Amino acid sequence: MPQHLYHLFAFLISAAIVLITTPWVKELGLRSGRVDIPNDRKVHDRPMVRLGGVSIFLGTLMALLLIWKLGGFIDTDGRYLDPATEYEIWGVTIGGLLFFLIGFADDLFNLSAITRLLLQMLVASVAWSVCGVSIDFLTIPFLGLVELPGLVSLPVTVIWLVGMANAINWIDGLDGLAAGVSGIAAVVLLVVSLFMEQPAAALIAAALAGGALGFLRYNFNPAQIFMGDGGSYYLGFTLAGVGAIGLVKSTAVTAVLLPYIILAVPIFDMSAVIVDRLRNGISPFAADKRHLHHRLLNAGLSHRFTVLFIYALTLWVGGLALAFAGLPSGQAYALAATSLLGYVAWKAWNYAR
C-alpha cells in the first residue's frame, strides 16, 4: 500500500471512531453525573459532560494500533523502523496515554494543580530517559543552532512536553476552541513531517488530527460535550511529542523552529497569561479571565466568532510554518492564510466597534 494512504486511513479511522463513540461517552457521563457545572468564570450556562477526551484518545490510539498491525509504520525507504525510532513512537504513544489518565483522574476526582504538575513532570522525564523523546537542539539568538548536551536536554524537554499539555488545557475555554486549534496544528505537523521525511511522526499527527477534528462534530458551539482535562492534556502532550521526535531531532535550523511556530497560538497565550498574573502578584496557576478568548469576548465578539478568529490565527502561523519549511507552494499557503486572517481581523474590528 502506498505510504500516503496509511496517513489518510489513520485520519479517517480516528475520526470515525470519535464520531461513533462520543454519543456513548456523553450518555455514560450523564448517567454517572460527571458534568462540568457553570460558574462565573465559565461561559456555558448548563451542566456539560466533560469526558469527551475519552473518545479522542480511543480514536487516535485505535487508529495507530490498526495502522501498526497493517505494517504502516515504516521508514521513508520502505523498511521497518529502527529500534531508536520505534522507542520514540512508543514513548509518545504511552506518554500520551499517561497524560490522558492524569487528566481523566482530574476530571473524576479534581486533583490539585501541584499533583497534576508533578505527575506530568514524572511522565515527561520517563519519556525522555527511557524512550528518547527529547529535544536535542535549540536555536539561540546570536548563537544559532546549539546542541543540548546530556542532562541539559532533560529540563528543556520536560518544559516543552508539560508546557504544551497545559497550554492546550488553558485554551479549552470555549466550545470547539482547543479541538479546532489542535486539529489545525496536527494537520500542519502532518504535512511538515511528511515533507521532512518523518512518516512515523506524521502517522501520529494524522490520527490526532482525525480525532480532534472529528470531535468538533459534537464540541463546536453550541457544544454537546466537553473534552475535559483528559482530552486537552492528551492533545497537548501528543502534539509536543510529534514535534520533538519528528522535527526537533533534525539539525536544520528551520526544522528546530517549526514546532514552536506551528503551536505559537497556545504558547503565546499561556506565556502572556503567566506574565500578566505574576506582574499582578497572582499565582500562575490561578484560574481567571486573562486568556485571549476572554479578551476577545470582552471586546464584543460573539462566542462563535471568537473561536473562528483564533482558528484563523492558528491557520496563519501554520501557513508561515509551511513557507518557513520550504514546502512547494508554501509561500502561497502563507499568503492565503494571511489574507484570511486579515479579513477575519477586519470583521472582528467591526464587531468590536
UniProtKB/TrEMBL annotation:
CDD domains named among the record's database cross-references: GT_WecA_like
Q: What is its main location?
A: membrane
InterPro entries named in the record = Glycosyl_transferase_4, PNAcMuramoyl-5peptid_Trfase_CS
Under the GO molecular function aspect, what terms does this record hold? transferase activity
Entry annotated with the keyword Transcription = no
Record key words, sorted: Cell membrane, Membrane, Transferase, Transmembrane, Transmembrane helix
Location relative to the cell: Cell membrane
User: What protein name applies here?
Assistant: Undecaprenyl/decaprenyl-phosphate alpha-N-acetylglucosaminyl 1-phosphate transferase
Query: What species was this sequence derived from?
Result: Phormidium yuhuli AB48
